[in-house]
């Protein structure tokens, strides 16, 4: 008999974010504790190595799906933080326009652009 199997958090579809706060998000009648990547291939649990100092490595999955993404909204928590130059360069090289903003603003903007069927993705740092 096998024990509990913990799988990588993944929702295989696109869905608006219904709520955020308390360290997580609600979407598609589910909840997730922690940060999220909302990509064309689905919604993934995401834990950047150091949220205040995001790196190119934190966005490997985004870069892998670059052909399907035009706009990347980066929810940087409760405060707006600029993206590091190396990350901006890596995204620009694959023709992704990155817009950092507070997580709340990123959630609202993501939902609007998703409803408009735009080529949007979001990297959302959880807030309390």
Describe the structure.
- Helix content is 21%, strand content 31%.
- The protein is globular and about 35 Å long.
- Strands 1-6-5-9-7-8 form a 6-stranded mixed beta sheet, sandwiched between helices. Strands 2-3-4 form a 3-stranded antiparallel beta sheet.
- It is built from 3 helices and 9 strands, in the order ββββββαβαβαβ.
- The mean pLDDT is 92.
- The protein has 128 residues and is of the alpha+beta class.
- The protein has one domain (10-124): Hypothetical Protein Mth938, Chain: A.
- The termini are far apart.
Write the layout of secondary structure elements.
Layout (H helix, E strand, L loop, with lengths): L9 E2 L5 E5 L2 E4 L2 E4 L1 E5 L2 E5 L13 H5 L6 E5 L9 H9 L3 E5 L1 H13 L4 E5 L4
Parallel strand pairs: 7-8, 7-9
Antiparallel strand pairs: 1-6, 2-3, 3-4, 5-6, 5-9
Number of helices: 3
Return the CATH class: Alpha Beta
- Beta-strand segment tally: 9
Mean of the pLDDT scores? 92
CATH superfamily: MTH938-like
Amino- and carboxy-terminal Cα gap = 38 Å
Low-confidence stretches: none
In percent terms, what proportion of residues is strand?
Answer: 25-35%
Number of domains: 1
Radius of gyration: 14 Å
Question: Which strand order spans the largest sheet, edge to edge or round the barrel?
Answer: 1-6-5-9-7-8
Classify the fold: give the CATH topology: Hypothetical Protein Mth938, Chain: A
Query: What is the overall shape?
Result: globular
CATH architecture tag = 3-Layer(aba) Sandwich
How helix-rich are the residues, as a percent range?
Answer: 10-25%
**Helix/strand/pairing class, anyone?**
alpha+beta
Largest sheet: 6 strands, mixed
Note the quaternary state here: single chain
Order of helices and strands: EEEEEEHEHEHE
